[in-house]
Amino acid sequence: MRDFLTLEIWKGSHHLTLKIYRVTKDFPKEEMFGLTSQMGRSSYSIPCNIAEGCGRNSNSQLANFLQIAIGSCSEIQYQIMLSKELSYINEELFNELHTESIEIRKMIFKYREKL
User: How many CB atoms lie under 10 A from the CB of residue 44?
Assistant: First the structure.
């Protein structure tokens, strides 16, 4: 069992989740049950799957949960792009969130490969 709280991949994904929640708070009210809700679920799925995988007994189980987290990173990347194209976020915020999501995905992938 690993302590997920010490992993940079968990810390980074947790930080991204907090940012996503802050940003989507200002989305149009009609998106509350659409994009806003989905972005929250996608973003918190990343640190949740890392944490759950760390609580498992084997590297193969951890690797499986990391793969799910990688998929959630891809999902949030698209949702960030959609948010920009719908003019819910500006170019600067898009670049920040997009870059951060790519870096987290790369970090998780590298960690998974080391297992």
Answer: 19
Q: What is the number of other CB atoms lying within 10 angstroms of the CB of residue 63? A: 16
Angstrom distances, CA of residue 113 to CA of 50, 60, 74, 100: 14, 11, 18, 20
- Tell me the CB-side half-sphere exposure of residue 16, using CA atoms within 13 A: 32
Average pLDDT over residues 66-87: 98
Instruction: Write the pLDDT tens digit of every residue in 6-17.
Output: 999 999 999 999
Segments in the chain forming alpha helices (H):
8-24, 35-54, 59-85, 91-114
User: In degrees, to the nearest 5, what angle opens at C-alpha 57 toward C-alphas 52 and 59?
Assistant: 85
| Domain 4-114 belongs in CATH node 1.20.1440.60 | yes
Whether this prediction's pTM lies above 0.85 is answered by yes
